[in-house]
Design goal:
Strand order of the largest sheet: 3-2-1-4-5-6-11
Radius of gyration: 19 Å
Strand content: 15-25%
Order of helices and strands: EHEHEHEHEHEEHEEEHEEHEHHH
CATH superfamily of the domain at 3-173 and 216-242 and 283-299: NAD(P)-binding Rossmann-like Domain
Number of strands: 13
Largest sheet: 7 strands, parallel
Shape: globular
Structural class: alpha/beta
Helix content: 25-40%
Number of helices: 11
CATH architecture of the domain at 3-173 and 216-242 and 283-299: 3-Layer(aba) Sandwich
CATH class of the domain at 3-173 and 216-242 and 283-299: Alpha Beta
CATH topology of the domain at 3-173 and 216-242 and 283-299: Rossmann fold
Distance between the termini: 15 Å
């Protein structure tokens, strides 16, 4: 099986390549932008046949034949990015070009959408393809993803194409993401440095400090859900999450427990620029993916955080490194 993974040096993309290697696939073309990052460390333990810079890929895409599947996971995922022109070019127009190529060649196309498309959640978090116009993303990142969801729906692509609405994914291989790293990754450094963890105070009177939260999903679970669609013919939009909402306080407790340190949290004011575009509650409804045949169970938060900290962050390991197996899991494809 020949597979293209865009964003293959990034967080979820490199985790997908790792799991494909675990399943015996290595005829993989990776497309990404290295820039001045340490993404190369994600690639070092992995097996693949070639690497192409994303800026060059569209110019030569027509040269690729006999491709079985494309996982389009490359995007700018910064929720604080304000350059709308860049986000539309990078996240919408690029995705559209790759999708149209795959659609024309009848190549299985699985792409990363985002739970950020749901906005504040007041219109629900239903992952069907009907009435997408009711959603109002809170930032340009979410809107750039929403644009392609709507484009695919208008053009009848969801008869064959799969869009994955990732919730808050955390786990190994995210070190290069800077400020967009998960709280677990940031907290590991912060707690080891200062002994305490800073969390945002609530700016919403409906939620106490630390008692709002997200659907935190371990990257190993997200990858298992993603690769389910490689061997399954289901199509459409699907939520990728744990199916649970955990508070920031619960996440903090799991982090301190994994580190073997007493909980020490300091609440600080939420930055003004985030207050009007902050998601206070996200929770993936996984009905559609389970109806499609997926049967895997989500790793509980404490176990996932412990696996991440003890097997990867503490020893400085990446997915695929020797002696960095951590939690095993069985593919439900």
């Amino acid at each position: 099986m020949k597979i293209i993974v865009t964003g293959g040096a990034g967080f979820i993309g490199s985790a997908v390549v790792w799991r494909l290697n675990e399943l015996g696939y290595d005829d993989i073309l990776i497309v990404d932008r290295m820039d001045e990052t340490d993404k190369w460390k994600n690639l070092a333990p992995l097996r693949f046949v070639d690497y192409i810079e994303a800026v060059d890929f569209l110019d030569i895409i027509d040269e690729f034949g006999d491709i079985d599947a494309i996982f389009h996971l490359g995007a700018c995922s910064s929720t604080t990015e304000t350059d709308a022109d860049f986000m539309v070019r990078n996240n919408f127009q690029y995705t559209k070009a790759v999708a149209e190529f795959a659609f024309a060649k009848d190549i299985r196309f699985i792409y990363a959408s985002s739970a950020a498309t749901y906005g504040d959640g007041s219109a629900g978090m239903n992952d069907g393809t009907e009435d997408l116009g009711r959603f109002r993303p809170l930032n340009v990142y979410g809107y750039s993803k929403h644009m392609f969801d709507q484009y695919a729906a208008r053009n009848g692509m969801f008869d064959r194409v799969v869009g994955l609405k990732y919730f808050n994914v955390f786990g190994p291989n995210e070190n290069h993401k800077g400020n967009m790293r998960s709280l677990v990754n940031k907290a590991f450094e912060q707690i080891n440095r200062s002994g305490k963890l800073q969390l945002f105070k609530s700016a919403n009177p409906d939620y106490a400090d630390g008692e709002f939260g997200r659907d935190f999903v371990y990257v190993k679970d997200a990858v298992d859900m993603t690769l389910f669609f490689l061997g399954n013919k289901a199509s459409g939009l699907f939520n990728i999450g744990s199916g649970q909402m955990n508070t920031w306080n619960a996440l903090a407790e799991a982090i301190f427990k994994a580190l073997g340190k007493p909980k020490n949290v300091e609440f600080i004011d939420m930055p003004v620029h985030l207050r009007d575009r902050y998601q206070y509650h996200t929770q993936a409804d996984l009905t559609r993916i389970y109806t499609a045949g997926y049967s895997g169970e989500s790793t509980q938060l404490d176990a996932a955080v412990a696996d991440y900290i003890q097997y990867y962050l503490t020893p400085g390991k990446f997915l695929g490194d020797p002696n960095a197996d951590g939690l095993g899991f069985v593919s439900s494809r």
